[in-house]
Amino acid sequence: MTKPLSLLLCAVTIQAAAVDFAKQVAPILEKHCYECHSQKTGKKKAGYVFDDLETLQRDISPKGAIVPGAPGESHFLIVVSDPNHEAHMPPDENLSREQIDTLRQWIVEGASLGASSKSTMAANKGAAKPGLPPIMTWINFEGKKIKAGFVRLEGKQVVLRMPGTGKEVAYPMDKLDSASQQQAVDSAQ
Ligand code: HEC
Question: Which atom in ligand 1 lies closest to the alpha carbon of residue 32?
């Protein structure tokens, strides 16, 4: 019984930590793919350039080589993970199991290029971490302090993201003190 359980735990752990493109995916591509697919070396075999994020972004789409959320439909992943594929990549070696798992998990999670891609950078302007709003202090009408990030206004509620759990909670505006209500209005602009 111990084995299936440990496998299950392992799967859960992989799910819990989001794969970071710059820290985990780019280094694999740099080491094993740039030689033939990068601006750095000037080799753009089959048109793939993995160190130019704008070009790479174009390959990430429902019809591209990298299909966000669908590793099984991603040609990019199929050629690295199937050693018998006629276009197996890299041509003369195999990526390790962990490297392939990292690439797969990155695709499962949506194949985001993270803060390094221009579009996401614009979307997250002003945020401390990509996708995460900066933590602010909110005070409710009873004087209780709440530390949370601002997400958006929703009618008469302010949606806050709790640090730690990352949960979004809708908080009635009229339960916040006036300064915090103003903070919510300011944050929405
Ligand atoms: C030694 C050179 C070399 C390396 C290293 C290399 N590739 Fe390639 N790659 C090629 C060539 C040449 C082609 C085009 C010819 C072909 O399809 O075999 C190609 C084509 C591809 C294709 C299109 C395959 C198809 O079916 O047409 C993908 C996707 C790809 N590479 C991804 C990668 C990835 C990901 C890596 C790193 C893990 C990588 N390549 C490493 C030379 C390389």
Answer: 37
Protein residue whose Cα sits closest to atom 26 of ligand 1: 87
Cα of 93 from ligand 1 centre, angstroms: 11
Alpha-carbon distance 74 to 62, whole Å?
Answer: 9
Q: What residues contact 95, with CB distance under 8 A and at least 6 apart?
A: 28, 32, 80, 81, 103
Determine whether the shortest distance from the Cβ of 19 to ligand 1 is under 6 A.
no
* List of residues 6+ apart from 185 with CB closer than 8 A: 153
Residue 60: CB partners within 8 Å, gap ≥ 6?
Answer: 66, 67, 68, 111, 113
Largest CA distance in the chain: 67
Closest approach atom of ligand 1 to CA 92: 1
Residue-level pLDDT, tens digit, the chain, 189 residues:
555 555 555 554 444 568 999 999 999 999 999 999 999 999 999 999 999 999 999 999 999 999 999 999 999 999 999 999 999 999 999 999 999 999 999 999 999 998 654 444 344 444 344 557 788 899 998 899 889 999 999 889 999 998 878 888 899 999 999 999 999 998 888
Query: CB-based burial of residue 184 (10 Å sphere; 0-12 exposed, 13-18 middle, 19+ buried)?
Result: buried
